Amino acid sequence: MSSLLLSNPNLSTSFLPCKIPGYENTRKTAFCPLSRSSKVARCAVDTPSGGNMPTFSRIKVWDPYKRLGISPYASEEEIWGSRNFLLEQYTGHERSEESIEAAFEKLLMTSFRRRKKEKINLKSRLKKQVEESPPWFKNLLNFVELPPKDVIFRRLFLFAFMGGWSIMNSAEGGPAFQVAVSLAACIYFLNEKTKSLARASIIGLGALASGWILGSVVVPMIPTVLIHPTWTLELLTSLVAYFFLFLACTFFK
């Protein structure tokens, strides 16, 4: 028996899956490595279970600001940052994550109500200022309206296209044709709103004249270094006129 043990130093049994180290040809098993220095087996069954995860210390704090550890005057960016930081710290602990998310959602709803209230208060203040304004200012506002955004963008695109068309043809001739088309479009849009061709024509021609006069005064003040060599005074004045036509047919009524 002793000769058998000496001839086979790698001893293993069904109760000890790890082979005893210390010999030259000893091999370690994959699931139960041995440390040569301590001679202590460290197996997978010895790792701690998931029950030892850290628990959020402020899980029962009622105030959502204190629960997230931020000031009552914190911005939305700070609220998001605190929420993400805490979720990283307590990932895997369900009760902690639920407590953090509940406080975060409560603060978001509070921020939304505050913004909505401020928006309503702003409208109320503007309405009050309009009501207290002089009569001439009220009469002026009666000629102005705010159309839907899609209408604004469509008409802005139209007059921007006219401006680009005029710039592309600046070397060939003046923008007389483009100005005429823009004026006709402005009168058409105004006639749709006012149902009066005479009123639409007066507003359109007034916008064109105002833009042309203002452009003739302002454009010469621009340094020539900032102006393209092929851009004439007539072209730049027409661009100002396009802008006035856009304002007239979009916001006037």
From TrEMBL:
Superkingdom in the source lineage: Eukaryota
GO molecular function per UniProt: protein folding chaperone
One of the GO biological process terms: embryo development ending in seed dormancy
Keyword Membrane: yes
Keyword ATP-binding listed: no
Pfam family, one: CPP1-like
Residue stretches spanning the membrane: 174-190, 202-223, 235-252
Protein name: Protein CHAPERONE-LIKE PROTEIN OF POR1, chloroplastic
Organism for this UniProt entry: Citrus clementina (Clementine)
